[in-house]
């Protein structure tokens, strides 16, 4: 696969934690053993045990919207510490903060501020993750539950940063905490009234609206069945964009592919269009090589492809001598913030259009139009 050939040893090191579906959890170590590799290679190069708790795979491998939101928050917490140690750099929130020099100048103390900060956020925005990360940090002698407000200490400064991050993201329109008193709302649940017009389980040939979306029913082949859901459909309406005003973002609309998407039958104009596209798809698929299929699988997984793309470019610049090795982590933080902002706003727009059009998936149409084949 050509993508694999382009990877440098540095990039492979940076990706290793993310690619392990089930990390091998090592036994207890000292604080320095756990964190020291991070001080050299960056935040995902700590011990396997450390990485499995602070960058948990069940979060990294969750649905794409949650990966994007988590990735942005993770980048923000590292940027906040970086900015607080640089008088020329503003925080994510536009403030000019100053962290005590004894915390900035000691790499271990500085890294601990980052660790305490993200754990603070985990406990409030991703509670199931926060329970495990808190227990882990306590097991290596740290005090993640400290309520200190003394900004002269690492945990006190982290509490200041974490509280500010949580205050912003709990009101970012994702409903990340849910509203249990309102219709038993769970975290990230929809409160905008979205509902598919087609029920799941109905044969494709009997859909009320054949060009509109139908949730598919999937199975593990062991008697368990799962109905698809439009994950966080509310973000297209309620989430805050970062890079431009919301009204400007929502002006960017896409034209739907069908002339009559809400009819109870497929109009001949739309049927002709669908059949033409389907046959084109079949023709392209028949000519795919194994390497092209591998590349498609690679780019389809946003964790392995789009997510670490900044690490890929940084690794290439290090190999070419354009940046010093010791600057890897700082540069990746800056690129991750830029990438995270762009991905977040692109996803908000995509989710808005996905909800607005609410169109059938290709497999639903193909099953309907080609069921005799």
Number of helices, where a helix is a run of at least 4 consecutive DSSP H or I residues: 17
Most strands sheet = 2 strands, antiparallel
Count of distinct structural domains: 2
Query: Radius of gyration from the CA trace?
Result: 24 Å
What fraction strand? under 5%
Unreliable segments of 5+ consecutive residues: 1-28
Gap between N and C termini, in Å?
34 Å
Shape summary = elongated
Q: How many distinct beta strands?
A: 2
Order of helices and strands: HHHHHHHHHHEEHHHHHHH
Query: How much is the average pLDDT?
Result: 84
How would you classify the helix and strand content by structural class? mainly alpha
The side-by-side strand order for the widest beta sheet comes to: 1-2
Helix content: 40-55%
Ordered list of secondary-structure elements with their pairings:
Blueprint: H1 2-6, H2 9-19, H3 31-41, H4 48-54, H5 57-60, H6 64-84, H7 101-104, H8 107-125, H9 127-139, H10 154-169, E1 217-219, E2 225-227, H11 235-238, H12 246-249, H13 268-286, H14 290-300, H15 309-319, H16 328-357, H17 362-369
Helix pairs in contact: 2-15, 6-8, 6-10, 6-16, 8-9, 8-10, 15-16
